[in-house]
Amino acid sequence: MHPRAQEFVTRARDLGVEADVHEFDEGTKTAAAAAEAV
Prior knowledge:
2 helices, mainly alpha, elongated
């Protein structure tokens, strides 16, 4: 897992939130492209 994603998961857990983070093989350049990938 990318270090920033892991940091997010850790901090969310510290606040009582269980985050379900997914990483995709291909990166996306825009929010629209990311939404389409999901």
